[in-house]
Amino acid sequence: MIIPVRCFSCGRVVASDYEKFKTGMDKIRSTGKKPTDAEIEKTLDDLGVERYCCRRMILSHIDLIDEILPFS
Ligand SMILES: [Zn+2]
Description:
Blueprint: H1 15-29, H2 37-47, H3 52-59, H4 65-68
Helix pairs in contact: 1-2
The structure holds zinc ion.
Residues 7, 9-10, 12, 51, 53-54 line the site of zinc ion.
Protein backbone atom coordinates (compact mmCIF):
# COMPACT_ATOMS: atom_id res chain seq x y z
CA MET A 1 0.00 0.00 0.00
CA ILE A 2 1.64 3.19 1.21
CA ILE A 3 5.12 3.08 2.69
CA PRO A 4 4.85 3.44 6.48
CA VAL A 5 6.24 6.77 7.67
CA ARG A 6 8.36 5.18 10.40
CA CYS A 7 10.16 1.87 10.80
CA PHE A 8 7.98 -0.55 12.79
CA SER A 9 10.90 -1.71 14.94
CA CYS A 10 13.03 1.35 15.74
CA GLY A 11 10.87 4.32 14.75
CA ARG A 12 13.28 5.86 12.27
CA VAL A 13 11.58 7.88 9.51
CA VAL A 14 11.85 5.78 6.34
CA ALA A 15 9.15 7.25 4.08
CA SER A 16 11.37 10.05 2.80
CA ASP A 17 14.23 7.62 2.14
CA TYR A 18 11.91 5.32 0.16
CA GLU A 19 11.29 7.99 -2.47
CA LYS A 20 15.02 8.61 -2.85
CA PHE A 21 15.66 4.86 -3.01
CA LYS A 22 13.02 4.46 -5.73
CA THR A 23 14.54 7.34 -7.70
CA GLY A 24 17.98 5.71 -7.47
CA MET A 25 16.64 2.35 -8.64
CA ASP A 26 14.71 3.97 -11.51
CA LYS A 27 17.90 5.74 -12.59
CA ILE A 28 19.73 2.39 -12.75
CA ARG A 29 16.78 0.74 -14.57
CA SER A 30 16.71 3.57 -17.14
CA THR A 31 20.10 2.35 -18.36
CA GLY A 32 18.41 -0.92 -19.32
CA LYS A 33 19.77 -3.25 -16.63
CA LYS A 34 18.48 -4.56 -13.32
CA PRO A 35 20.03 -3.09 -10.16
CA THR A 36 22.62 -5.48 -8.71
CA ASP A 37 22.83 -6.40 -5.03
CA ALA A 38 25.89 -4.18 -4.65
CA GLU A 39 24.10 -1.20 -6.22
CA ILE A 40 21.10 -1.67 -3.93
CA GLU A 41 23.41 -1.92 -0.91
CA LYS A 42 25.32 1.20 -1.94
CA THR A 43 22.10 3.17 -2.49
CA LEU A 44 20.85 2.27 1.00
CA ASP A 45 24.25 3.08 2.53
CA ASP A 46 24.32 6.46 0.76
CA LEU A 47 20.86 7.26 2.17
CA GLY A 48 22.12 6.48 5.67
CA VAL A 49 19.78 3.51 6.15
CA GLU A 50 22.09 1.32 8.25
CA ARG A 51 19.89 -0.86 10.49
CA TYR A 52 18.46 -3.98 8.88
CA CYS A 53 15.02 -3.29 10.36
CA CYS A 54 14.86 -0.04 8.35
CA ARG A 55 16.33 -1.70 5.25
CA ARG A 56 13.62 -4.36 5.28
CA MET A 57 10.95 -1.63 5.42
CA ILE A 58 12.27 -0.16 2.17
CA LEU A 59 13.28 -3.38 0.39
CA SER A 60 10.12 -5.35 1.17
CA HIS A 61 7.66 -2.59 0.35
CA ILE A 62 5.42 -3.03 -2.71
CA ASP A 63 3.61 0.07 -3.99
CA LEU A 64 -0.01 -1.03 -4.48
CA ILE A 65 -1.83 2.23 -3.80
CA ASP A 66 -2.34 3.07 -7.50
CA GLU A 67 -3.87 -0.36 -8.11
CA ILE A 68 -6.14 -0.22 -5.03
CA LEU A 69 -7.41 3.37 -5.49
CA PRO A 70 -9.92 2.68 -8.31
CA PHE A 71 -11.81 0.25 -6.06
CA SER A 72 -12.18 2.50 -3.01
ZN1 LIG B 1 14.46 0.48 11.89
